[in-house]
């Protein structure tokens, strides 16, 4: 009897949440006020990281900026300060767990208060075919795109839980939801990031009295930042699904973060391949990928990367 009541309640809840999600597409819910929040962004010297920093600054948040590239990170900090907002830049190599923990302690003592939002944005890709790729580059992708999420969460979640207030954002990728050829390291790390993020979100939901700690998973399609320069699908398909403009991508991600949306795929159309991967047979997806030129979309990217390595503009080791 109890199970039937539970089933009925579950079905009603299920319908409520489906309807609410559909309505939210049309009627945007109220955004939360992040004025005064202390927001930490990793990879803040990069293209999306910098744009995130500027967006959060516009909303009045104080910023903690982490990147391994001191020059570009300081430039981001300068731009943020020009908006009239406080920014604290730290040079951090996310491959090193101890550095993450030590810098988290430094932030606590130097800034004098707890980080309330973490935007895990730093990411890398080897850009080589698996068999041509030096092992250290494969390991680097896993360390930065996946392992760093463990250490960042262990460093900053305890204070959020203690205050029952916080937000953890994972910038994953559509390549964490479906895959293509020649980006094995990247897909492995982004699928791992998606799995990590989802499990963490479930864990927070099962803990009583922790409804104040939110999570958002951001899965963008190809963005025109240079990270995947050369990546290309069939011309005709590119008219339907062009590379995202970085500002647009960050705006869409911000819209989701500010309404505590658990998942956002950018653009919306990329929910389709995510669904088709789950629902259609493998071979059906393969022929669809071939038709769209998605099977070999990374070939020109790999070629361009080989060229950059040969010219000494990219990491050979
Ligand atoms: N561009 C795209 O098409 C897409 C990107 N994404 C994801 O968005 C995020 C941002 O990408 P994007 O802005 O394009 O890339 P960028 O390369 O412009 O930015 C990444 C930043 O992370 C920094 N970084 C790299 N390694 C480390 C490290 N060990 N420790 C600290 N910082 C590090 C980089 O420093 P530096 O390079 O100077 O050494 C760079 O400043 C990534 O997670 C990426 O996977 C998701 C979907 C699509
Ligand atoms: C595989 C695939 C596609 C192409 C995906 C591409 C080109 C993704 C690139 C993503 C990047 C570079 C993400 C970085 O994080 C389509 C056309 C959507 C159709 C379905 C299958």
UniProtKB/TrEMBL annotation:
Q: Which Pfam families match?
A: adh_short (PF00106)
Q: What is its EC number?
A: 1.1.1.300
Q: Which GO terms describe its cellular component?
A: lipid droplet; membrane
Enzyme class per UniProt = oxidoreductase
Q: Which InterPro entries match?
A: NAD(P)-bd_dom_sf, Sc_DH/Rdtase_CS, SDR_fam
As recorded in UniProt, coiled-coil segments are: none
For membrane topology, the record states: Multi-pass membrane protein
Question: Sorted alphabetically, which SUPFAM superfamilies does this protein's record hold?
Answer: NAD(P)-binding Rossmann-fold domains
Query: Known catalysed reaction(s)?
Result: all-trans-retinol + NADP(+) = all-trans-retinal + NADPH + H(+)
One MF annotation (Gene Ontology) recorded for this entry: all-trans-retinol dehydrogenase (NADP+) activity
Gene3D superfamilies (alphabetical): NAD(P)-binding Rossmann-like Domain
Keyword annotations for this protein, in alphabetical order, are:
Lipid metabolism, Membrane, NADP, Oxidoreductase, Transmembrane, Transmembrane helix
Does the keyword field hold Transmembrane helix?
A: yes
Membrane-traversing stretches: none
Q: Which domain of life is it from?
A: Eukaryota
Which compartments does it reside in?
Answer: Membrane
PANTHER family per the UniProt record, alphabetical: PKSB, RETINOL DEHYDROGENASE 10-LIKE
Q: What does this protein do?
A: Catalyzes the reduction of all-trans-retinal to all-trans-retinol in the presence of NADPH.
Describe the family membership recorded for this protein in Swiss-Prot or TrEMBL: Belongs to the short-chain dehydrogenases/reductases (SDR) family.
The protein here is known as Short-chain dehydrogenase/reductase 3
Q: Which organism is it from?
A: Albula glossodonta
């Amino acid at each position: 009897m109890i199970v039937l009541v539970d089933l009925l309640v579950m079905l009603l809840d299920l319908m409520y949440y489906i309807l609410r999600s559909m309505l939210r597409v049309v009627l945007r819910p109220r955004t939360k006020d992040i004025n005064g929040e202390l927001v930490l962004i990793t990879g803040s010297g990069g293209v999306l990281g910098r744009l995130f920093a500027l967006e959060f600054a516009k909303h009045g948040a104080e910023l903690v900026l982490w990147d391994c590239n001191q020059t570009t990170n300081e430039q981001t900090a300068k731009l943020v300060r020009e908006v009239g907002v406080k920014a604290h830049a730290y040079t951090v190599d996310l491959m090193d767990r101890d550095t993450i923990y030590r810098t988290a302690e430094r932030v606590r003592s130097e800034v004098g208060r707890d980080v309330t939002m973490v935007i895990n944005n730093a990411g890398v890709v080897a850009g080589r075919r698996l068999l041509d790729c030096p092992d250290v580059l494969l390991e680097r992708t896993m360390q930065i795109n996946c392992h760093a999420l463990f250490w960042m969460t262990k460093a900053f979640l305890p204070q959020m839980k203690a205050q029952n207030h916080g937000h953890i954002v994972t910038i994953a990728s559509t390549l964490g939801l479906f895959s293509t050829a020649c980006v094995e390291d990247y897909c492995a790390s982004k699928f791992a990031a998606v799995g990590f993020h989802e499990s963490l979100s479930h864990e927070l939901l099962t803990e009583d009295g922790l409804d104040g700690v939110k999570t958002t998973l951001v899965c963008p399609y190809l963005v025109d930042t240079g990270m995947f320069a050369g990546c290309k699908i069939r011309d005709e398909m590119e008219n339907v699904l062009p590379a995202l403009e970085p500002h647009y991508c960050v705006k869409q991600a911000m819209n989701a973060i500010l309404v505590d949306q658990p998942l956002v795929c950018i653009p919306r159309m990329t929910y389709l391949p995510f669904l088709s991967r789950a629902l259609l047979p493998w071979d059906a997806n393969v022929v669809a990928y071939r038709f769209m030129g998605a099977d070999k979309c990374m070939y020109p990217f790999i070629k361009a990367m080989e060229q950059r390595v040969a010219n000494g503009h990219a990491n050979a080791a």
